[in-house]
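My current task is to audit a protein record that another person submitted. Please read both lines and tell me whether the tokens look consistent with the sequence. Do not assume that whoever made the record got everything right. I have pasted the whole thing underneath without changing anything:

===
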Amino acid sequence: MDIIEFLSYAFVQKALIAGALIAVITAVLGVFLVLKRLSLIGDSLSHVALSGIALGLITNTSPVFMAIPVVMLSSLGIYKISASAKVHSDSALGIIAAAGISLGLILAALAGGFNVDLLSFLFGSILTVSTSELVLAFVLAAIILCLVYVFYNDLIAITFDQNFTKTAGVHTERMNIILVLISAAAVVIALKVVGIMLVSAMIIIPPTAALQLAKTFKKALILAASFSVIGVILGIYSAFMFNMPSGAMIIAVDIIILLIAVSLRNYAFKKR
């Protein structure tokens, strides 16, 4: 099948648009999270998302819409635990992840076990994205990118030197809360692309690849978003062509991009 025929399918067009939007926001936020050493927040919050999704199945409501407030509240919990209880951020991530996955498994059992709907969120099912999910991706992408644009300088400041930023008069607590909340929203909508099991990879790998090559922060954001979109497009195409899981193929392409970026960086260092 050639690329023209591939793009002629309506469900493929929806998948590519939704996937590209989600790829951009996860990559952009991923750069901040990787540099703040909070990249595993995606893994923790994706485990929590299982609780929201299972709750949505129990109450016969949209799993995505139900998961968003659950995950956002959990992201605030991570921040409060690490800030107020003097617990290291990695410990806070582990606590929330354990609580989320245990509650999620209990709710999943009450919802009738791991049915088809739940499994699609575990492993991703971008080719089955609905119109409502596409609209949600548009709305959340617009909100998240607008917030990053408005608070760009403050987000950079808390990423590199939070203590100095606080003494300079920036409301660091507010900025950290904004960052974890929009990251939570991004995690939930990314579940449809790669699933609970792989969502953290989508947040970590493209930004890490970009940081290998970029010389400025803005270039890192642009490269990360570009790499992530390429991963989604090639991953969806490969999954469709070879009848493979779309989430796994997207991450496989991301890993290849990362390996190429590392090789290019090493080559550049050897030439110096």
The radius of gyration is 18 Å.
